[in-house]
Amino acid sequence: MEEDQKRFIERGSHKGKGLAVFTSGGDSQGMNAAVRAVVRMAIYLGCKVFFIKEGYQGMVDGGDNIEEANWSSVSSIIHKGGTVIGSARCMDFKERAGRVKAACNLVKRGITNLVVIGGDGSLTGANLFRQEWSSLLDELLQTSQINKSEREKYAHLNIVGMVGSIDNDFCGTDMTIGTDSALHRIMDAIDAIVSTAYSHQRTFIMEVMGRHCGYLALVTALTSEADYVFIPEMPPPRDWPTKLCTKLEQARTIL
Prior knowledge:
Elements: H1 2-6, E1 18-23, H2 31-45, E2 48-52, H3 55-61, E3 66-68, H4 96-108, E4 111-118, H5 120-142, H6 148-153, E5 158-163, H7 179-200, H8 215-224, H9 240-254
Parallel strand pairs: 1-2, 1-4, 4-5
Antiparallel strand pairs: 2-3
């Protein structure tokens, strides 16, 4: 019986802890569902939950950008695209002075647990923030922006990263937030033009996002029966124009 109970996280087991969630960088569909899940699970655990609006910029600016959330705050958002709490790129956070301000805003609200929903840059920034946390608090203490009691009480910062990227370019996760929706949008576009391609025996070249990751291009090529695909992980051979033309000529001959 005791072993079965240990499998589940008990309601109120983290009562009194401060947790904040924010979205950063480019938005992707599914972010709102992630925000909703974080807020409601945190409430279940007994945490005091906050939204940080406009990403790192809201953390640096503080004030109304850091708002306490409740159960109803995340009602009717799961089906919406983008992010309801906003996202912005922040130059201030790249400077130590900006991170000092952010740390002060978190300490004053009792927040020592952060859930970051974003891409590579957002998660890299969060990791740097975590690494500097102790020295940031020391600086705040030296400048009398926090007291010794606050320095000791909020000595550790815990961070969880949820990868919001349509590119599916992060290791350690099966599929990043937004990837599946991006694939659906790409296939919708292909379905809309494929009839024209067949009608006029024309070749269409589709460029998709992905940057240095070819996941979207590869899966799209498989599902749309593309004749050729270019992905960064496997650069094409030098004679790819000849091979592509040969393939297209064969397809036209069959038609």
